Amino acid sequence: MRHDRHNRKHNNGNWKNNKHSHDNHSPKNSKPVFRPTIKAVSEEQIRENEEAIRNFKDSNKPVCPVCGEVIKELSSAINDSKSGSPLHFDCAIAQIQKDTKLENGEKIAYIGQGRFGVIYYANVHDTKHFQIRKIIDWEEKDKKPEWRDQMSELFSKVR
After folding, report:
1. Are 92 and 76 in contact (CB under 8 A)?
2. What's the predicted TM-score (pTM) here?
3. In this structure, which of 33, 99, 137, 158 has its CB flanked by the most CB atoms within 10 Å?
4. Own/partner pairs for 64-67, CB < 8 Å, 24+ apart?
């Protein structure tokens, strides 16, 4: 008589219960064990980092050269192409709109990498389909402003 998984007489229709299975030689409880590879950050280190960020924000309150108000969130600021200091993102858009004559269906939008674009929508209700009619280079690609380097160093530091 054959002793394999097709022989229902010896394994009750379940091939895993077969006494002659080769799987019986493996350990029963071989679950993987989690071993962290990164050291945990202590609460004291977290408090120190948060304090450093607060101090940086308190000591660096630049004034927008366009509107004259304090820039509260440097992370949303953009570099002023003339002075090199930070300015409100909305102030940059307002300045571009003032300097650029827009046609019907056109709009100013940020397109990334320090550039804005004059975007044309054939149907203003369909924002999926558009055409970039003009690219406005606002920030230099290869030159990072000093204020942004200071901010990114502090916020992205991993200990």
Report:
1. no
2. 0.55
3. 137
4. 64/88, 64/91, 66/91, 66/92, 66/94, 66/95, 67/91
Cβ neighbours for 71, distance < 8 A, ≥ 6 positions apart: 61, 62, 63, 64, 77, 86, 87, 88
Q: Tens digit of pLDDT for each residue in 119-134?
A: 999 888 888 889 999 9
Residue 53 has what DSSP assignment? H
Confidence bin at 159 (pLDDT 50/70/90):
very low
From the list 45, 71, 49, the residue with the least C-alpha distance to 60 is: 71
Q: Which of 130, 88, 82, 79 is nearest to 109 (CA)?
A: 130
Give DSSP secondary structure letters for 61-119.
Answer: -PBPTTT--B-S-GGG-EE-TTT-SEE-HHHHHHHHHHHSPPPTTEEEEEEETTEEEEE
In angstroms, the CA 64 to CA 82 distance is: 12
pLDDT tens string 27-65: 566 788 877 777 777 888 888 888 887 777 777 678 888
